[in-house]
Write a structure and sequence with these properties.
With about 250 residues, the protein is an alpha/beta fold. The chain is built from twelve helices and eight strands. The chain has helices at about 15-30, 45-55, 80-85, 95-100, 105-120, 130-135, 140-150, 155-160, 180-195, 200-205, 220-225, 240-250; strands at about 5-10, 35-40, 60-65, 90-95, 120-125, 165, 205-210, 230-235. It binds 2-phosphoglycolic acid. 2-phosphoglycolic acid binds near residues 173, 211, 214, 234 and 235.
Length: about 250
């Protein structure tokens, strides 16, 4: 049985006081939902404060990005070890905003996955097609290429500790959520890829989140799909009640 996993991607939002208050609110309510893994991913400058704010609760903290080098002259970047040092358990990698706005390639994502695993972080690796790719019938190919590129060289043992997030780019921040059937179709494909590249035990064990306009009022139908194991939530993770509504849907 895969444990449901709901993660909030706060992106570049909130100030310090708001971040600390939101984290405290999530931590306080999370005790009600022991069957669900919950994480919050604040901007990196607030990671330490948020980690302090959720201390003593089961809520995990995740970074939204890391750089793949261990240390050195990489102005503006943070390493995997630094993320661990300020309390991170997770790191979101390959988010479409980083791929498409900041120019990250599959190769970059792959190097970051390797660095994250080496530091003991759990990568949440995002994959997803653009609207034009979906309309051209290329979704399965795009997902397979991103999977192979982003996870090259990752062993069967390592992949067990990775979380995948299927995030169709056309559904992110648009209010246009994928239908439960659309999500399930890609999640099923991802399990087939996992079985092909690794084995069926891996395919059964790896958790696959859906992301893209998940809200408290649409989460239950998505999470009811057999291969949807959780959600990576953007906008709706910025309010305690809305986010905990999604966690509650995952607990059912
Ligand atoms: P959204 O973002 O929930 O605001 O669509 C999801 C994501 O980018 O992870």
């Amino acid at each position: 049985m895969r444990r449901p996993f709901i993660a909030g991607n706060w992106k570049m939002n909130l100030d310090r006081a708001q971040a600390v208050a939101l984290a405290a609110g999530v931590a306080q309510r999370s005790a009600e939902f022991g069957a669900v893994d919950v994480a919050v991913c604040p901007p990196s400058v607030y990671l330490a404060a948020v980690h302090e704010s959720v201390a003593g609760s089961p809520v995990g903290v995740g970074a939204q990005n890391i750089y793949f080098e261990v240390s050195g002259a990489f102005t503006g970047e943070i390493s995997a070890a630094m993320a661990v040092d300020v309390g991170c358990r997770y790191v979101i990698l390959g988010h479409s905003e980083r791929r498409h706005i900041l120019g990250e390639t599959n190769e970059d994502v792959n190097r970051k996955v390797v660095a994250a695993l080496a530091a003991g972080l759990i990568p949440i690796v995002c994959l997803g097609e653009l609207l034009a790719e979906r309309e051209a019938g290329q979704t399965a190919d795009v997902i397979r290429q991103q999977f192979d590129g982003s996870l090259a060289g990752v062993s069967a043992e390592q992949i067990n500790g990775i979380v995948l997030a299927y995030e169709p780019v056309w559904a992110i921040g648009t209010g246009k959520v994928a239908t439960p059937d659309q999500a399930e179709e890609v999640h099923t494909d991802l399990r087939k890829i996992l079985a092909d590249r690794y084995n069926t035990a891996v395919a059964d064990a790896v958790r696959i989140q859906y992301g893209g306009s998940v809200k408290a009022n649409n989460a239950a139908d998505l999470l009811a799909q057999p291969n949807v194991d959780g959600a990576l939530v953007g906008g709706a993770s910025l309010k305690v009640e809305e986010f905990m509504g999604i966690v509650a849907a995952a607990a059912k």
